[in-house]
Write a structure and sequence with these properties.
Layout: H1 5-14, E1 22-26, H2 31-39, E2 44-48, E3 61-64, H3 67-78, E4 81-82, E5 85-86, E6 89-94, E7 98-110, E8 113-120, H4 127-134, E9 136-141, H5 149-159, H6 163-179, E10 182-193, E11 196-199, E12 202-206, H7 218-227, H8 230-238, E13 241-244, E14 249-253, H9 256-268, E15 273-278, H10 285-296, E16 303-310, H11 315-329, E17 335-342, H12 345-354, E18 358-360, H13 363-371
Parallel strand pairs: 14-15, 14-16, 16-17, 17-18
Antiparallel strand pairs: 1-6, 2-3, 2-6, 4-5, 7-8, 7-10, 8-9, 10-11, 10-12, 13-15
Helix pairs in contact: 5-6, 8-10, 10-11, 11-12
Length: about 375
Amino acid sequence: MIPYEFEVKELIRRSGILVEPHCVVDKSKPESLSDCLSSIDPPYVVKAQVRGWGRAKAGLVKFVDSREEAERAVLELMSRAFGGSSVRYVIVSERMNVQKELYLSMMVDYTPPYLLLLASRSGGIDVETQALASGVLKVRINPFEGVREYMARRVAKFLELPVDETHRILEGMYSAVWEYNLHLLELNPLALTDDGIVALDAKAIVDDDALDLNPRLSEIRARYESELSLEENTARKMGFSLILLDGDIAVIGNGAGLTMATMDAVAALGGRPGVFLDLGGGASAERVKTALMLVLSRANIKRVIVNILGGITRCDEVARGAVDALRESGRGDVKVVFRLSGFMEDEGRKILEEQGIRAFRDFEEAVRQVVE
């Protein structure tokens, strides 16, 4: 899950990293606009809060010089959308005197398990291009040892920063990654200002499984869940991996790799995936029924392919759940194709075929049937 910038800034502030003076305007609380602008002195940077990267290039960051301009900018950004979602929150930040923009990120690498620190002398919206010219420093950190002084010295020398302040920032990043179950923490830009080294922007990816387990993330979780659609909430409660797309073919599988391969095969034959849904392992009849009811509730879905590799998952259980879902959904207009292979596949295929539902063992044939 990708938190908002203001949420990430609160996490890193608790971990000892400086952030610029800022306030948050909440679309659902009209009074928050005047309260916010009264608490920060101009000039301002006004930034829409989005769950992702690329907002600056989408025109969702404004630099303004007065309170009146800031108010207009906030209202304009509140009317915009990003990645299919309306803007609900806007940050108003004090525009700081920046001497140099840098880049720091820390991410979890699982092969072998360690934290990977990336540092670049160039930060900002074109960091990928600029980093190629200025170079990138990579430092591997043992997650059980933390940031050692020699690591801080390497990074400080590379970025031309004081060692003590660099060490403080790196320890803050390590602490945030560890305490808040972050897969990624990115400070971009990390700016050298008159007030010290300040994170002017911060992004993170939180381990989805930690949202329900880590009490420190309760507020972030509550805000995230309040924004989910009915389908996304159902998927989250059931433990499905769900991605909603723009096409008309729903792709359901048991395992992320199998589901992605099925989606790629559909796209390769000219089909347009509209839903990616990974059931996970050991899918019961009830889970399969819930998954199918979920995708069939979407008006844009006209065809469904269910690709099951039986192992922990029993193909006959899948078939029973599917029959129940198709009977109760009332979506007789939807073309549904099954591919069953593995444990109890013959029994599962028989259950489906008795109900007039197409079931194949061959993967490519099933994909062709759903795309045609």
